[in-house]
């Protein structure tokens, strides 16, 4: 028994958690590099360019109305965000009210518009002139888009704003009341400013989602001067039988969303450092 033990191979030393994590990362990098290399070697570059990024169609896309479509997308998004923020703030205050009917109305609104797809809401508002002859929403088609998308986004914003209000220390409200400040004034001048500073990052994320939701506007029927990016790219793709216009229009969304994403990340890092 002693001889067998003496002749056995020495046991391998166990890897530390740090060494094991390094090896796992190396394997992941190798797998990723192999996958990228396989895609590059198997892809047909000239064919991909002809289908997805033809230079002549890129130029045609930019010269046939893309700046107008980009401007419309920004206008639809900005207007819907203002409407959503206004209604969302009101809903958040109603949700925190001591008056029970206000809480009920806010709860029903939030649950309804969070459960109904934005496309259905857009179609419903787009058909108001059919259901109510003679009724017109001001600033068509912008007014319809602003109200429809704004009402949907308000349901989500209200929950974010409510969380921000509840995050404000109650001692500040009590201090304001002890100085004789009315509740409404304390809410406007003390609670809401601090709450909005807390919820700016998630509200900016909601703005990014609204930018992408603006692609649903095609459903209400638009004149060419009201096209947003997706509708513009889709129509030009159909007329040219090529994906290039739609790809270029899709890349334009990144022009809007990437700066917002960077802004959100910086604000979150700043808030994280402030809490340390």
Summarize this structure briefly.
Its main location: membrane. With 276 residues, the chain is an all-alpha fold.
Helices and strands in order:
Elements: H1 2-7, H2 17-42, H3 45-52, H4 55-63, H5 66-95, H6 100-115, H7 118-126, H8 128-131, H9 142-167, H10 170-178, H11 183-213, H12 229-240, H13 244-274
Helix pairs in contact: 4-13, 5-6, 5-9, 5-11, 5-12, 6-9, 7-9, 9-11, 10-11, 11-13, 12-13
Tags for this model:
mainly alpha; MetI-like fold; 13 helices; 0% strand
In CATH, what is the homologous superfamily? MetI-like
List the uncertain runs: none
Name the shape in a single word: flat
End-to-end Cα distance: 61 Å
As a percent range, the share of helical residues equals over 70%
N-to-C order of helices and strands: HHHHHHHHHHHHH
The computed structural class is mainly alpha
Membrane topology: Multi-pass membrane protein
Family: Belongs to the binding-protein-dependent transport system permease family. HisMQ subfamily.
Subcellular location: Cell membrane
Organism: Propioniciclava tarda
């Amino acid at each position: 028994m002693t001889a067998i033990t003496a002749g056995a191979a020495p046991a391998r030393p166990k890897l530390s958690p740090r060494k094991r994590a390094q090896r796992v990362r190396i394997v992941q990098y190798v797998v990723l590099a192999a996958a990228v290399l396989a895609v590059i070697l198997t892809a047909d570059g000239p064919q991909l360019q002809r289908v997805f990024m033809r230079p002549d169609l890129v130029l045609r896309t930019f010269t046939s109305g893309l700046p107008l479509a980009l401007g419309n997308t920004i206008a639809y998004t900005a207007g819907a965000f203002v409407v959503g923020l206004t209604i969302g703030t009101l809903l958040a205050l109603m949700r925190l009210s001591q008056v029970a009917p206000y809480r009920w109305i806010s709860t029903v609104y939030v649950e309804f518009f969070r459960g109904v797809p934005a496309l259905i809401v857009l179609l419903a508002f787009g058909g108001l002139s059919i259901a109510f002859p003679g009724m017109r929403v001001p600033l068509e088609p912008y007014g319809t888009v602003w109200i429809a998308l704004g009402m949907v986004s308000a349901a989500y914003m209200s929950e974010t704003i409510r969380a921000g209000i509840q995050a404000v220390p109650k001692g500040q409200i009590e201090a304001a009341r002890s100085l004789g400040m009315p509740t409404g004034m304390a809410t406007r001048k003390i609670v809401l400013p601090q709450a909005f500073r807390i919820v700016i990052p998630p509200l900016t994320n909601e703005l990014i989602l609204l930018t992408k939701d603006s692609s649903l506007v095609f459903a209400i029927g638009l004149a060419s001067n009201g096209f947003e990016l997706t509708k513009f790219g889709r129509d030009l793709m159909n007329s040219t039988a090529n994906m290039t216009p739609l790809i270029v229009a899709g890349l334009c969304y990144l022009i809007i969303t990437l700066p917002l994403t960077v802004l959100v990340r910086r604000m979150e890092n700043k808030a994280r450092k402030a809490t340390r």
